Amino acid sequence: MATIDEELSQLERDIRQLKIEYDMYFGGGRKRPPNEVEWRIDLLIKRYAERGGDMKFAQRFRFNNLSQTYAKYKDIFRKRMAQREEGTVQRHFGAAAKAIEAERAKAQTAATPAPPSTPAPAATGPNEATAAAAASPQVFRMVCSEPEKEGQKVDQLFDAFVQAKKQAGEETEKLTRSGFNEFVRKKTKDLQSKKNCRDVEYVVETVDGQVKLKALVKSE
What we know:
Strand content: 5-15%
Shape: elongated
Mean pLDDT: 79
Number of domains: 2
Largest sheet: 4 strands, mixed
Number of helices: 7
Radius of gyration: 21 Å
Low-confidence stretches: 89-94, 111-116, 123-137
Helix content: 55-70%
Number of strands: 4
Distance between the termini: 49 Å
Structural class: alpha+beta
């Protein structure tokens, strides 16, 4: 029997495959929409939506991200299907369709700034923290004062940061748990010394498709 992590990985692969096959369908490379892949995704999402209590925090965070990505794609596919049925979408076939998709991907890559390879936290006040939370539905927060004694909290922060970067398509191979732990320890001590505070709040959020890790000074 597959584990939760294995099934979430399969769900992630199916969502990617669904987008590819729908792009082929709208471009004229498929005769029918990929209903079988969509049905499999719906079944898995429904199953885990009903058993959220069985998942660890990092697994729930990953599942929620995947569910939101899928919902976004479904809305796009629904609108494109409606346009197709109304005859408002011009169809492109064969090599022309591939050329168009390649140009779109090239333009998107050129317009997207390269994500940083290492987290770049910025110390801000409580008001900025509230604004950040309102701007993104996927926000993970963790408050610590002695990270060397709060290993479980730091592990959860690391897992949330890695999962968010994976969902955003960013590179994670260079991130290590030990290096991240040391980074949080030094950053916490540095803010405590400079800002004369005890608690430091770390926030993981995705803004305009890029994952941000912020260190916020908690007011007393």
